[in-house]
Amino acid sequence: MQEIGSEVSFIPLSKSLTGIRGFDEITGGGLPQGRPSLVCGSAGCGKTLFGMEFLVRGATQFNEPGVFMSFEESEGELTKNFASIGFDLVELTARNKVIIDYVHIERSEIEETGEYDLEGLFVRLGHAIDSIGARRVVLDTLESLFSGFPNPLILRSEIRRLFRWLKDKGITAVITAEQGDGMLTRHGLEEYVSDCVIKLDHRVTEQISTRRLRVVKYRGSLHGTNEYPFLIDESGISVLPLTSIGLDYKVSSERISTGIPRLDTMLGGKGYFRGSSILLSGTAGTGKTSVAAHLAAETGRSGERCLYFAFEESQDQILRNMRSIGLDLEPWLKNGSLIFHGIRPTFYGLEMHLVKMYHLINEFKPHVIIIDPISNLISVGSSAEVKSVLMRLIDFLKANRITSFFTSLTVGGAHLEQPEEGISSLIDTWLLLRDIEADGERNRLLHILKSRGMDHSNQVRELLLTDRGIELVDVYIGQGGVLTGAARAGQEARDKAALVAGRQETERKKRELERKRQVVEMQIATLRADFESEEEEYQKTSAQQEERRKAIALMCEKMGRLRKADRV
Amino acid sequence: MDDATIKEPTVELEQIVEDIKQGTYLLRLYVTGMTPRSLRAIENIKIICQEHLEGRYELEIIDIYQQPELAKDRQIIAAPTLIKELPPPLRRFIGDLSDKEKILIRLDLAPQKENG
Questions:
Q1: Mutate to test the interface with A, among B44, B72, B100 (most CBs of A within 10 A)
Q2: Average pLDDT of the residues in A334-351
Q3: Could B78 and A124 be called an inter-chain contact, meaning their C-beta atoms sit closer than 8 Å?
């Protein structure tokens, strides 16, 4: 109680890094320093490995030599077993970094003949600790003593004394124990180790096994209380602390091209955000893999790395299929900027997939990862699990500014906009591909359901798989609704014909008008000509009249002169 | 009082054992310092040896505080531990060796009928 009292609580408990990947993160720095910790679990759950890795990492990474006291396996067996994960115990022993002490208890040889204690064990351990200046001790599995010594009362008091003694020596110790019925350990060792208890678990559900680790108790320290999946592979234990990642990662406003120019246009003209998560969902055969492959090729073109998890097709199959639409991924594969990782989803448990991905991502450090398709992972776990795994994966990717592209197969009948993973809230850009069947053909339509933080097109585009890759074309939107494919082409042709016809009609009308105008003009000309001739006639007549008057006047005068008439 | 009950049969027992086995006993007692328990164990084994193995035993008493490396080599866990190295089979006795009857039986120093 006094350890977590109000005065002391502000002083952080000093911790000893284990070097076990992920474990130090979930415990905020490893095991309690100078104290014993209990690691319990059923047979084959990885207790011995946990202990050994703690010791070997301590010796190799933190310059803390350690003593491994084994009650079950001999030095030879341990050395051989751990050589396979790269722990060279022979060398470490030779360099006085590690001591392995195999405590052999042969029950049939032992006879109890009075009072005793386990001082021999203390002497052995003490000697081993002193001879290399050990800071770490592993006791694997201390409970074996119970089968060797008949008196549990003595054992209990001696074990209690042992833990006290280790604590006094300031040794960071790991004590492993077998899981008991309804108890953490078979002999109740958890009563004695009160500082830190870790439980390992190996569960098989539907033939798929998952290893999990849980920090049951960690006195005086904050720790994650969840069950964390962990993996045992050729490099030891990795615990996945992905849930501990918060939402405080930095986001990028940098954009990356989708590899399909028209899609870039639809996404505000620039493509996806770097580090965003993109979901492409669609029914079978809508071209999901092709869209993904365009992104992969584009990543290669821009000199970045892409990791492609193919859960459905093999690498060669994808390469061949993409060649048929004029997309050659070979160069990027050759220069190492594209890596395919193909594995059957049912090969591992879900958590194991996550761990594997996590590993590959850490190794390859890609800029873009593609998971094609995530829907296949659902066959491995329940939908809650899938969501939790994807959430952690996306968090992890976002924190590392890796763009993630998921495809999801929507099963016929299911609502298109609600993929069963229920992960839409985790997705930044959601593209929807669907095919519509009309007039005896299927056509693919693509639209953007959402795209956070960018001005994106709300238009539906028709997706064409041509031999030059994917092309997006406008669909026909007219009175007959949205038309695609041949219907769109037909409608476009009809439109064109109607247009031509209309133009011809106009021209005909124009010509007719022209003709009418000419007629009118002609009539005007005729009338004018008539008028002019009449006017001419009149002028002629009037001139004649004048002539005649003049002639008459002249004649009158002449006649007068002839008659010699009197001048008045 | 234990002594009184055991001493009587062991007189004849010594004879029987001597007849059957001529082999020498090699005994090693590992103790941790001179604690009362250690001293008790030393005293007890000495008595047993003198009474039942006179002339054909070798007893070595080792303080593993002085030679801690032996604890590992000899697989010592409990203290005190008595190991009968010879004759075979190897046997370990843990405790202060106060249960003489048991020790004699397991050292094959008790007659068979007493065993049952």
A1: B72
A2: 80
A3: no
Mutate to test the interface with B, among A70, A119, A121, A165 (most CBs of B within 10 A): A119
* The pLDDT of residue A539: 92
Q: Please identify, among A474, A508, A529, the residue that sits at the C-terminal boundary of a domain.
A: A474
Identity of the amino acid at A449:
L
Residues of A whose CB is below 8 A from B81? 116, 120
Contact (CB, 8 A) for A446 and A432: yes
Question: Which pLDDT tens digit goes with each residue over A58-86?
Answer: 998 898 999 999 988 888 888 988 888 88
The model's confidence at residue B30, banded by pLDDT at 50, 70 and 90, is very high
Using the beta-carbon criterion (under 8 Å), do A114 and B64 form an inter-chain contact? no
Q: Are residues A266 and A357 in the same domain?
A: yes
pLDDT digits (tens, 9 = 90+) for A211-249: 888 888 888 776 666 777 787 877 788 777 555 455 566
A133's torsion region: left (phi>0), alpha (psi -120 to 50) or beta? left
Task: Compare CB distances from A113 to B64, B72, B103 and report the shortest one's residue.
Answer: B103
Is a pLDDT exceeding 60 seen at residue A4?
Answer: no
Residues A120 and A240 both lie in one domain = yes
H-helix or E-strand spanning residue A297: helix A288-301
Give me the CATH number covering residue A397: 3.40.50.300
Parent domain of A126 = 2-244
Residue of chain B nearest A154, judged by CA positions: B78
Chain A interface test: which of B94, B96, B97 (most A C-beta within 10 Å): B94
Q: Is A121 in the B-facing interface, judged by CB distances under 8 Å?
A: yes
Number of domains in chain A: 2
Q: Which residues of A touch B82 (CB under 8 A)?
A: 113
Least Cα separation, residue A169 to chain B (angstroms): 17
Residue that the structure tokens 């068979």 belong to: B112
Phi, psi of A267 (to 5 degrees): -95, 60
User: pLDDT-derived band of residue A467, with 50, 70 and 90 as boundaries?
Assistant: confident
- Chain B CB within 8 Å of residue A80 CB: no
Give the per-residue pLDDT at B18.
56
Tens digits of residue pLDDT in A12-54: 678 888 888 788 878 888 888 888 898 988 888 888 889 999 9
Which domains occur in chain B, in start order? 32-108 (3.40.30.10)
Residues 6+ apart with CB under 8 A from A227: A201, A212, A213, A214
Q: What is the pLDDT of residue A479?
A: 64
Which chain B positions have a beta carbon within 8 Å of A103's beta carbon?
75, 77
- Let me know if residue A537 belongs to a domain: no
Check if the beta carbon of residue A51 is closer than 8 Å to that of residue A39.
yes
- pLDDT averaged over every residue in chain A: 83
Q: Kindly list the residues from chain A whose CB atom is less than 8 angstroms away from the CB atom of residue B95.
A: 112-116
Q: What is the DSSP letter of A320?
A: H
pLDDT tens for each residue of A9-23? 455 678 888 888 788
State the residue for tokens 């406003």: A253
When pLDDT is averaged across residues A135-162 and rounded to a whole number, the result is 86
Distance CA A513, CA A494 (A): 29
- For residue A206, the model assigns a pLDDT of 63
Residues of B with CB under 8 A from a CB of A: 30, 32, 37, 40-41, 44, 64-65, 68-69, 71-72, 75-82, 89-99, 102-103, 106
Strand partners, A472: A463
Residue of B nearest to A123 (CA): B68
Do A284 and A410 sit in the same domain of this protein? yes
Complete edge-to-edge strand list for the sheet that includes strand A227-233: A98-102, A66-70, A136-140, A172-178, A36-41, A196-205, A208-218, A227-233, A236-239
Q: Is the pLDDT confidence value at B5 over 60? A: no
Q: Which amino acid is at A343?
A: I
